[in-house]
């Protein structure tokens, strides 16, 4: 940020009003650039990390939802021949679990499947960026909350639900998951400075 302020102050009139106006217009276009050989953390979205790899990756919030939350559910454009809706070529229908009990059930299930696949692909990108070490924080629900949720909907609402389920049920990973400590360790970090 100091570099940006310094650059602006050397470019002409450097008063507060001009800076604030310039900041309003330019702030979303500014980026902090860190030289490649700099020993520093890089904070980025999973989308921005696509195609890159890093010695160590930390995923601080592996608890994003597998489908859209209720307030952000998309609008579905549905076709039907059922009257009176059949008179329109496409109908805009607000997506939501209530559609399971309607003639738009298949449209809803297809949309839900696409959301699940998109979020599983996002998880794949997140979990395949690390060369040497990955640290991932996933929320573990308490027993009552998990039981209540599975009675009313899919048992996997978030990526963390899916991760915990895999750790609890995988024969291959048995012994590496310590549920009492809520710790999963696979492999050992190296004591050497990470080679290029």
What report would you give on this structure?
By secondary structure, the chain is α+β, with helices and mostly antiparallel strands. It is 34% helix and 13% strand. It contains 6 helices and 6 strands. The protein has helices at 2-9, 16-26, 46-49, 105-127, 143-152, 159-169, and strands spanning 54-59, 75-78, 91-94, 130-136, 177-178, 183-184. The strands form 3 sheets. A two-stranded parallel ribbon has the order 1-4. A hairpin with a 4-residue loop joins strand 5 (177-178) and strand 6. It starts with a helix and ends in a 12-residue tail after the last strand. The relative contact order is 0.12. The model has no long low-confidence stretch (mean pLDDT 81).
Please report the distance between the alpha carbons of the first and last residues. 30 Å
Question: Which structural category do the helix and sheet elements fall into?
Answer: alpha+beta
**Radius of gyration from the alpha-carbon trace, in angstroms:** 24 Å
Calculate the mean pLDDT score and round it.
Answer: 81
Number of helices: 6
How are strands sequenced across the largest beta sheet?
1-4
The share of residues in extended strands comes to 5-15%
Helix percent reads 25-40%
What is the overall shape?
Answer: flat
Which oligomeric state applies?
single chain
The tally of strands reads: 6
Q: Main beta sheet, described?
A: 2 strands, parallel
Query: Are there runs of 5+ residues with pLDDT below 50, and where?
Result: none
**Series of H and E elements:** HHHEEEHEHHEE
